[in-house]
Amino acid sequence: MHTAITIDALKVLDAIDRKGSFAGAAGELFRVPSAISYTVQKLEEDLNVAIYDRTGHRARLTPAGHYLLEEGRTLLEAAENLAHTTRQVAQGWETRLRIGFNSLLPAECLFPAIRDFYQLGVPVDVQIVEEVFAGTWDALQSRRVDLIIGADNFSKPAGNFTTRALGEMPFVFAVADNHPLASAEEPLSEEDISRYPAAVAADTSRSLPPGHAGIFRRQRTLTVANIDQKIAIQVAGLGVGWLPEARIGRQLEEGSLVVKRVHEARQPIMLHLARHAEDQGKALMWFWDRLSRDDVVKPAPKEAL
Question: What's the rounded Cα separation, in Å, for the pair 11 and 256?
């Protein structure tokens, strides 16, 4: 496909505008003034458009010329970015990294690593994707994300994955301070709990079997999109259920949530980093090493327990 508008012609228009004259552009581009004039005239002929108004003492851009210059600068910037990212890919850096995180963890656990990554000055786009339960593994398996943080062992699919343990996530059974179960005798039985709706975060898995935990067969459910909403539902007294202890330190400290002992406690789960074993991109491996060192699975503050 042939087009009259070339990167070189756009560079010429940009230089003329910045330097204020054809001669100034010629000096910056290391060309003779006649070469600059020829490039402009050829562009005008090919487009059949007057780019400069030459009726006055000094040639001035026409409205069409102004439009071509401004839009052309966008193309010049895009071309420069393309050249830079091409060199970046050749050096082993990705152009984009997608990180999936389990909703059991707050998105803020990724912020220190992202802040330090930006200090490297590498123009890699970073995308953060929230997943629930088996959705973390599903996102990695289907390559919707390149790296997952907070993956469990229960929903891990078959495949060539590399994992690294981050720490255990303990759970507590929590109810609102004004909920009927807040004053109920402990330990709570299945009959006690099943009278009230369970707050449930919907599994985001698209192909793997969805996960669920801590729901009794006879119990109604109130389903929301993530753990933050589940916490809010339980604080509002609209549902009850198990919550990651490290996520509700503030609510426990202020008393809006109350921990209750139950007959069958929920065991902690080990959370992991995970990636496809064959993936070795520089940005991926940088985050892999950094997040392995970060304390992303933090225990609840002592004063909140």
Answer: 63
